[in-house]
Amino acid sequence: MSTLRIAGGRIVDPANGINDSVGDIWIKDGRVVDPPAEPDARADRTIDARGCVVMPGGVDVHSHIAGSKVNAARIMRPEERRTEDQVMRRWASFRSGTIGSVPSTFTTGYQYAGLGYTTAVDAAIPPLGARHAHAEFGDTPLVDKAMLVLMGNNHAILDAVRVGDPHRIKQTVAWLLDAAKGFGVKAVNPGGVEQWKQGGDRLAGWDDRVDHFNVSPREIVSSLARAVDALGLPHPLHFHGLNLGVPGNWSQTLEGMKAVEGSRLHLAHIQFHSYGGSPDQAGDFDSMVAPLAEYVDAHPNLTVDVGQVMFGETTSMTADGAVGHYLANLHGRKWFNLDVEQEDGCGVVPITYDDRNYVHALQWAIGLEWFLRVGDPWRVALSTDHPNGASFRTYPDVIALLMDRGLRADVLKSLPERVRARSGLGDLSREYSLSEIAIITRAGPARILGLPWKGHLGPGADADVTIYTPGHDKRRMFALPRWVVKGGEVVVDDGELRRAPAGRTLFSGMDVDAGVRGELEQWLAREASFHPASFRLGVGDLADPLEVGRREGI
Amino acid sequence: MPENTGTTSRTIEPFTCVQCGCLCDDVRLVIEGGRIVDAVSVCAIGRAALVGVNMEPETGPAALVRGKPIDVEAALDEASRILLGARAPVIVGLDQSTNETVGRAVALGDRIGAVVEVGDFSTTGPRVAGFQRRGRVSATLGEIKNRADVVVFWAADPITTHPRHWERYSVEPIGRFVPEGRAGRKVVVIDEKRTPTAERADLFLALEPAGELEFLSVLRALVRGVESDPKRVEAATGCGFEALVELAGILRDARYGGWFTGALAGRGAVELAEARHQAVTALVRELNQHARFVSIGMGEPGNARGAEDVLAWQTGLTPSVDLGAGYPEALPGATSAAHRLARGEADAAVVVGDISLDHWPAAARESLARVPFVFIGPPVNALASSAAVAFSTGTVGLDEDGSITRVDGVSLPVRAIRARRYPTEREWLDDLLTRIEPPAALSSDGPGAGMVSS
Fold first, then answer.
1. Is the ipTM of this complex over 0.90?
2. What is the pTM of this model?
């Protein structure tokens, strides 16, 4: 394979302690390599990056880009994809597509790469939805993909948690992950979705019991977090908490952080879980980021992604069916719900975040507070919970807000006055540096995911590189990278998308005890509406699969 | 795989049957003497289609041009010539094809600027339009199996059309929350006539198709507790008021209810199908204020649902998408391929699969007889002999593997069970894609609108 040299750029590579230092990056066979020993060595191609900012490719730790709920949202919302600015035209060998809040597959890949992102994780695939989701991954080029497999309401898991046998829980996790060819484990409102499916009341507290299964959210989450660590999975348990969006939920969020002491935990779209007030008094709604951020900073086993809300039209989609039902009733708009046997399902509802709406404006401020209050940027990842808070296409806007307190103040001024009293955002003068932006958009998410060859530009790293033209307008800078390199190929060349390699599918290889597998498949044959042989995917069902190793020393 | 001849018997399992919308994936086939001699866990429909199938059928020509056998390369050249010369092509069929094949067909449509339409638009169009207005509250079939204590068949007769639905998914299975199986479920049939399914129901309500929409609205009102005038209700629906009140009570008192509908959500006028789909969703949504309730289609044979899904994920739109402008557009009615043909606006066609054109307007069928079209499907077929170019394929599930999708969105693998006689649908489409090069890029012109956020 040919060599590529990115010459003379301002390298921002925080994982390797390089902060805006001029140098060269050498690339060979899809990897970053040491510069050649000979001083006059020439590369097959040299990009003159003088004056430009060179960062690793972006890594999205939490997004919804594939599978049945994403596709239902596409089908349900043609109204979002009818105008000229919401389509991508067929061009050369590029496929046409549509955008809206949930772009079609090829367009999703093109749009991510157009922003300099080269890796994206779909955060919520039910085991039974994996075959469909992997098929969509195969049609989503340019980014490496991975899926987190939903297990927090899984009947086999809940049964195992009730019995309380750690080996059994661990093997059940391994079995589900292997069947789905997933990368990591996700728990959404653990036990609460099952309870809602049974027609029961909301599980409001960590020690409420799930009917029939007789387990609590605390037992489910602590068991899953321990199993994920014991299996040596690269990424910790990825957790969507209790009471998403409910005023006063911050106290359960804090309790959850404490409940997993001793295990790693990633808390997803934490913005939606940081609300003060009480469920019955919407007027009391306020920000409780400060005590939560302080707790995260003090506990290295915890990481978060934000789930930033940006104003405008989008589509909410969640495996938390109860939340989908709540939003459908709240907004009175069209509602898609799909209950999936054995595990969760999804709710999809259009939503318009309106800057004149006090609640929406406060959600916006609470998200930004998270970025600004967590002292250690390695522990907080940029996400909009695409498309829930906003499309991933708004990332440049989020970055601009983080880098410019004046911009934040301008927006804050235009919001309902109560927001300034109920959130501390106005007092936060911190401005993100380029290096900190590189941490929350690539280096940090790669570390949180446990992918040591991503998110940095040291020798051996994936040759995923984004080169920006710096400027005062940070939104423009991050929206229009000048070059993007994916796996050593220049895919965005001088601002134009030129190539669309497929991107790989990352999955965690699992050893499943044959006896446990046999028992669980027999159970599945009794309980499911399909044959167990239809459930388990093979590596051949994945597009360009790449098995990811276990963590050492766990 | 080579087949044992002689008297040795072997079995193939699990096999996925595509003969009705159940898509049972637990079938066992018994092979003896080069034929399928028995099938276990199948219904009469599946049995009739599968038993007797020859594992080593005779092979005919792989390609025909105007009905005459021809060299494959020449046929591919001729098909490419037709498609490259077309200004307004359509691609139709695909609802018997694997998801993977549909993906290739959409790629071809994107390249040549075609209208791609999967399945029968006269039934898919109203359903998708209804979904786009109101959404849908649904579930996978295993949720019905495990949770449902109330099951409604709305103008549907699964005992006749989906024989294993009753035993496998909806009524008889022992479920986690329905340990009594059949005895633990209240089964309601609402239909025009006392069907075989109605005979086995706990409650049957006879309903004239013309009254279906009113029935759904009245039932929703009763579920909500709206005061209704019994005389007006009876006049609108033709049903007794007391029976309707009883039904509303059964639905509202459900722990988990399943409402099953056929493709048109009733037997009434096709023109009202979209309204009926919306009314079913509105009713089910209302019921979710009182109970958990979902609606699920009965499902079509083959892969109608999967074809819709693939078209949607690749373009963002479904079930009929116009790629002629260089990007996907869908305007219901205006982009129906059959109507394009009927209006004489299509100048070439690709037909994928052994599809029925019975649902097409007569003018569209006549138009297909006039325009050059490429057929990719089984060799012994009326379409194959009338096509400008016909490419012979095997049968999905027997000769071609891949994945298909059940009506509830569950994707299932299908696995070829006999040695292939012809290339697969997917391979023919790949051959055409290889020949029809993408248009050369204009150096100054990028991928266009929407490259980055604005």
1. yes
2. 0.97
